[in-house]
Amino acid sequence: MGSALPDGEPVPEDGSLPPDTQIDLATPFSVYLHVPFCRVRCGYCDFNTYTSEELHGARQDQYADTLLREVKFSRSVLSRAGGIRAASTVFFGGGTPTLLPPGDLARMLNGVRDAFGVAPDAEITVEANPDTVTDAVAEELAAAGVTRLSIGMQSAVPRVLTALDRTHNPANVTTAVAAARRANLNVSVDLIYGAPGETLDDWRASVDAALDLEPDHISAYALIIEAGTKLARQIKRGEVVAPDDDVQADMYEYVDARLSAAGLDWYEVSNWARNLSQRSRHNLAYWQGSDWWGFGPGAHSHIAGVRFWNVKHPAAYAQRLAHQNSPAAGREIPDAKARTLEAVLLRSRIREGLPIDEIESASRTNIASLIADGLIDGASALSGTVVLTLRGRLLADAVVRRLTD
Predict the structure, then answer these.
(1) pTM for the model
(2) Where would I find the Radical SAM core domain in this sequence (predicted)?
């Protein structure tokens, strides 16, 4: 059911932002819609998701109506703060959004459209389990205005899927992509590497299978062992072996080379796209520090430097909204040092890089050694921007530490 929420100060029941909040209407505004339902819990998952046995009074069939209450609530909050803007991106994440009927997702999207407006060229993405995508589902989502489907493939190797506790039929990935194409939706597929027992040959097979689908975008994430997950407990008990850092590095180098040869360019450490228009604009909004409101239990938001997050459980979330109270559990306003750290952490991961003048002067002395160590591109640094090399992407956390020392 996800990691603990951060500490923070209380949020007023009416959700009002701090009185000195200055919203820049020129800053893009994004919307995240969290659907916290899953049929089963994957052993590695640390997201705020719930199976039917864990809902404890919350109802999946009432969820769209509950979330729409928060949409209306947020309209009031942002209106009082002078911050109403059309959404430039909308992202349905989870959980498994496509466990809900497409009509529910359409109603949620229409609620956003009514409250804020949606830009004519908006990117609207739905994450999907391959088993839940049919022609009818894809067509209904497209008719609602969805432009992009992000399909959770993870692996093409059945035993690797089993190790990850993924239950979808691998053959349905092809079916889901075909359905999305027939509905004129852009397609992204997600992969995970470093599962217990996964070999480099297994990974090559999965990457090649993903490319055979000819998607517009591929995400490839290293498996991270999160505390409190089933997989973490299995590793602690010695039932499975923890991911090997060197093997994961080999897997990353393979996927980068293979995708680049196939015409997909990296634009963020874990993401590749066929062209600029196929990049995930929604995720770029996070990495570039834009504004967004996250709707749903456990969802996080960022508006004009104010960060706030909702209560985690769907039942508590629904109860607060039923009483017309803010579902937020807490908020914070990061200080200048925290904002600098966050900018380095996020913006250094993207291909456009991080302007050197946004790094604290004391840390800029490390740039020469980072170039010498082959971690950042020398020519880009001389032009005023930190851009990771391939080696730097493999050691991105180490680069961030040296840029924030």
Answers:
(1) 0.96
(2) 23-279
